[in-house]
Write a structure and sequence with these properties.
ILBP, nine-stranded antiparallel beta sheet, 2 helices, Calycin, lipid-binding, globular, 131 residues
């Protein structure tokens, strides 16, 4: 499955609740709510470079090889180690506070991040179109 391409946020669901659960400040949540994130993915076999462009010209790039532990970074700059795997055409990985999956469906990048709160799972779903 090829993920290579450049994508822009089309819709997102659960943004506010997910960000609040992760402790993102309200002013940052407000700035990012309607921002159309741009995600650029390059892929060479099992090797990926995944760059997300955030507001205020901030970008985060994570490079990884499927099935191998890689150095990763969150939007907040927190460094961690994770292993990205491919399961049923979906990329999956565990960030420090949530589980993340990405897939291509109907030519769109579908990303689902799931965190757990005292009330149960909190889900952020982002759908991005190819640009």
């Amino acid at each position: 499955m090829s993920f290579a391409g450049k994508y822009q946020t089309e819709t997102q669901e659960g943004y506010d609740e997910f960000c609040k659960l992760l402790g993102i400040p309200d002013d940052i949540i407000e700035k990012g709510r309607d921002y159309k994130l741009v995600t650029e993915v390059t892929q060479n076999g099992d090797e990926f470079a995944w760059t997300v462009h955030y507001p205020a010209n901030h970008s985060v790039t994570n490079k990884f090889v499927l099935g191998k532990e890689s150095d990763m970074e969150t939007i907040g700059g927190k460094k961690f180690k994770a292993t990205v795997t491919m399961e049923g055409g979906k990329l999956t990985t565990r960030f420090p506070n949530y589980h993340h999956t990405s897939e291509i469906s109907g030519g769109k990048l579908i990303e689902i991040s799931t965190a757990t709160s005292a009330k149960g799972p909190v889900v952020l779903k982002r759908v991005s179109k190819k640009i």
